[in-house]
C-alpha cells in the first residue's frame, strides 16, 4: 500500500439515508469541503485503511454506460473539473443502487479527488457514525457523535491515470459483505476481472520479492517456497480460494503481517478470492531460464544438494549426475 503524501484536489461529503428494507434518500452538500488539517487527517486515514484491507476486487468500467453511468460521469468531470456537479450526479446513482439492495444502510458518503506520487485517483467511502464520550466546558461527560473512521466496509477507488492510459485494472472496491459489496460495485460500474492464472503469477512474484527484501538465508528461502508450493498446490487441487491473511499466516508464520502487507501492496494489484492455478506455482520450486543457444530447468533444491553448481567467478553452471540417456546423446554429437 502506498505511504506517499496525499494531495487532496477536491473533497465533499453527502449523506445517504436508508434503513434496511426501506427507501433511500440523500442529503446533498451545497459546497465542497475546505482542505484543512481535519480533512487531510480523514482522507489520509481512510486511504491508508483502504490500502491495508485485503478482499478487494479489481477491474475496469462496464461498457454499457446507460446501465452503468459512472464512466460517463468521470469523463465529464475530467473534461469540466466540476467536482461538485460530479459528486451530486454520482450520489444520485448510488441512491438508485441502494434502493435496489434491501440490506443497504445509510452513511455519510465521502468523495475525493486525491493524488500522490503513486497515482491520481477518485476515492469513494461510505462512513458510519459512532457515539463516543467527550468532556465539555463544565468538565462533565457528554455523548459525542463522530465519524467511524476505523470500520471501513464499503469503499472504492478509480485510478484516473491507468484509466486514461487505456489500462485494464483501474477500478477497485472492497468486496466486503456480499450484497452490500455488490450494489457498490454496480454503482462504480466495475466489471471485476479475476483471472486465476494471472493472480497466481502475481502471488508468486510477490513471494519472490518478499523473500528478497527479507534477505533470507538460502535454507529459509527454500522453506518459504516449499510451504507456499505445498499450500497453493493443495488449494488448486481442492478448489480452495485464496485469502491473503490466511495464506500469509501459513507460508510465513514468523511474521505473517509482514508478508500480508507485501502481498497487498498496490503495485502488485493482487486480489483475494481466486483458486490458485497450479501451472503458475512451478517457479516456487524450479528455476527455468533460456538463452539463444540453450534452455534449462532444474529444482531449486539442486543448488543445495550439489547436483547443480553455479561458479560465479567463471560464470558457469556445472550439472552433476547426468543420466545415461543424456550422456549417450552428448557423446554422439
UniProtKB/TrEMBL annotation:
Family: Belongs to the YejK family.
Pfam families reported in the protein's UniProt record: NA37
The UniProt record lists the keyword Cytoplasm: yes
Name listed for the protein in its UniProt record: Nucleoid-associated protein
Key words, A-Z: Cytoplasm
Matching InterPro entries: Nucleoid_associated_NdpA
Subcellular location: Cytoplasm
GO cellular component terms given for this protein: cytoplasm; nucleoid
Top-rank taxon, per record: Bacteria
Keyword Cytoplasm: yes
Major location category of this protein: cytoplasm
Amino acid at each position: 500500500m502506498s505511504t506517499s503524501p496525499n494531495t487532496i484536489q477536491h473533497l465533499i461529503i453527502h449523506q445517504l439515508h436508508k434503513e434496511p428494507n426501506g427507501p433511500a434518500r440523500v442529503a446533498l452538500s451545497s459546497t465542497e469541503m475546505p482542505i484543512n488539517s481535519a480533512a487531510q487527517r480523514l482522507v489520509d486515514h481512510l486511504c491508508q485503511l483502504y490500502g491495508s484491507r485485503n478482499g478487494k476486487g479489481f477491474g475496469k468500467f462496464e461498457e454499457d454506460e446507460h446501465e452503468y453511468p459512472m464512466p460517463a460521469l468521470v469523463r465529464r468531470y475530467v473534461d469540466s473539473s466540476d467536482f461538485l456537479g460530479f459528486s451530486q450526479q454520482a450520489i444520485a446513482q448510488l441512491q438508485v443502487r441502494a434502493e435496489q439492495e434491501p440490506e443497504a444502510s445509510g452513511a455519510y458518503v465521502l468523495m475525493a479527488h486525491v493524488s500522490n506520487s503513486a497515482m491520481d485517483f477518485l476515492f469513494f467511502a461510505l462512513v458510519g457514525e459512532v457515539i463516543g464520550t467527550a468532556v465539555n466546558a463544565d468538565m462533565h461527560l457528554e455523548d459525542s457523535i463522530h465519524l467511524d473512521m476505523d470500520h471501513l466496509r464499503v469503499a472504492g477507488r478509480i485510478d484516473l491515470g491507468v484509466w486514461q492510459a487505456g489500462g485494464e485494472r483501474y477500478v477497485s472496491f472492497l468486496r466486503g459483505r456480499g450484497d452490500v459489496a455488490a450494489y457498490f460495485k454496480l454503482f462504480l460500474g466495475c466489471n471485476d476481472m479475476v483471472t486465476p492464472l494471472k493472480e497466481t503469477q502475481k502471488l508468486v512474484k510477490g513471494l519472490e520479492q518478499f523473500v528478497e527484501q527479507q534477505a533470507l538465508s538460502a535454507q529459509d528461502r527454500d522453506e518459504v517456497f516449499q510451504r507456499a508450493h505445498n499450500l497453493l498446490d493443495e488449494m488448486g487441487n481442492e478448489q480452495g480460494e485464496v485469502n491473503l491473511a490466511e495464506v500469509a499466516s501459513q507460508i510465513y508464520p514468523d511474521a505473517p503481517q509482514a508478508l500480508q502487507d507485501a502481498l497487498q501492496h498496490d503495485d502488485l494489484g493482487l486480489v483475494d478470492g481466486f483458486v490458485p492455478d497450479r501451472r503458475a506455482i512451478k517457479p516456487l520450486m524450479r528455476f527455468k531460464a533460456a538463452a539463444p543457444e540453450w534452455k534449462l530447468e532444474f529444482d531449486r533444491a539442486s543448488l543445495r544438494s550439489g547436483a547443480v553448481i553455479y561458479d560465479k567467478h567463471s560464470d558457469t553452471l556445472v550439472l552433476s549426475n547426468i543420466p545415461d540417456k543424456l550422456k549417450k546423446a552428448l557423446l554422439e554429437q
